[in-house]
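Need a sequence for this fold. Nothing fancy.
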């Protein structure tokens, strides 16, 4: 876990170093303006930027002897508040729990599906993967290759098969085998965006016929390095299917790590997992406190 935290920190380090230096200075008007500017540059969004600046200034103004928090700690607390008090809701008792992963192409859906399966299997749960991206011929093979390496079973279809039919089969297989979780990987690219969203809605409808209440989770996978561009993306998917969570990948290589706060605020949907690398263990449950502290350069 320490390694994971270090990697998250390294990814956010350009942001974190700058914040750490700034927050160690007297929070006068000039420092406050610079802090605001840097928060905006890291894609936190204006509302969070204002709150963090106000918190840091207020902490600084307090008599040093009476100070309960340093400006950096106050800033981290403010970022945590912006993320809401939502923590990952435990799995509802449904068996199998059906998790659908959505997102634009290259966001990290397929690798995230495999990493989740690995994680849950390590926890002693049985998982089944549904390869619903039948649009790209290589997509099913990519998932199968991962599954083979991890020892997880995949249900797929021929290239061009109806993704909803694959989802139906995968969920039915999960029910028949008494699996704990079925993870559905979906396409990120189709002829048009409207076509993609229609396809995803159909996967949702058909999955519900295979298993009442499914999909229990609809998690949007976002590439964390996209910054503020991901807000609009997230809104479109949320309007189309009603998301229940976010997974933010590639936080190991970005200075724009604030965007996830902006997306959470915009959608009111919590971050469930974050990705900080390409290995299975590099996907970890989101810890708002660790994230907020990393961002401003504080130790765990
Ligand atoms: N550095 C880093 N790379 C990641 C992370 N998550 C995913 N990737 C990489 O991002 C690339 C795209 O990942 P995929 O899982 O194929 O993305 P996808 O959303 O399934 O893409 P499509 O199937 O084309 O829609 C791969 O090379 C992954 O290894 C992460 O947290 N950190
Ligand atoms: Mg994929």
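Here you go.
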């Amino acid at each position: 876990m320490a390694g994971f935290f270090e990697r998250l920190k390294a990814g956010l380090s350009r942001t974190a170093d700058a914040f750490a230096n700034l927050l160690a200075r007297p929070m006068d008007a000039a420092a406050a303006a610079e802090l605001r500017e840097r928060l905006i540059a890291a894609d936190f969004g204006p509302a969070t930027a204002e709150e963090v600046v106000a918190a840091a200034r207020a902490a600084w103004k307090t008599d040093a002897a009476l100070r309960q928090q340093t400006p950096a700690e106050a800033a981290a607390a403010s970022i945590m508040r912006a993320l809401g008090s939502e923590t990952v809701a435990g799995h509802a008792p449904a068996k199998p729990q059906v998790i659908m992963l959505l997102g634009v192409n290259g966001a990290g859906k397929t690798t995230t599906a495999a990493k989740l399966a690995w994680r849950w299997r390590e926890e002693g749960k049985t998982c089944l993967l549904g390869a619903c991206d039948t649009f790209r011929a290589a997509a099913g093979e990519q998932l199968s290759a991962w599954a083979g390496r991890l020892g997880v079973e995949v249900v797929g279809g021929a290239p061009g098969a109806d993704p909803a039919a694959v989802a139906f089969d995968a969920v039915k297989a999960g029910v028949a085998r008494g699996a704990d979780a079925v993870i559905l990987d979906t396409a990120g690219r189709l002829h048009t965006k409207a076509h993609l969203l229609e396809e995803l809605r159909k996967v949702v409808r058909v999955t519900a016929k295979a298993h009442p209440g499914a999909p229990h989770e609809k998690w949007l996978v976002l590439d964390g390095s996209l910054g503020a561009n991901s807000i609009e993306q997230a809104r479109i998917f949320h309007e189309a299917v009603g998301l229940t969570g976010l997974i933010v990948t590639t936080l190991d290589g970005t200075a724009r790590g604030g965007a996830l706060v902006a997306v959470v605020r915009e959608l009111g949907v919590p971050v469930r997992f974050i990705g900080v690398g390409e290995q299975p263990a590099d996907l970890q449950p989101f810890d708002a406190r660790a994230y907020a502290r990393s961002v401003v350069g504080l130790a765990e």
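For context: The first strand starts at residue 97 and ends at 102.
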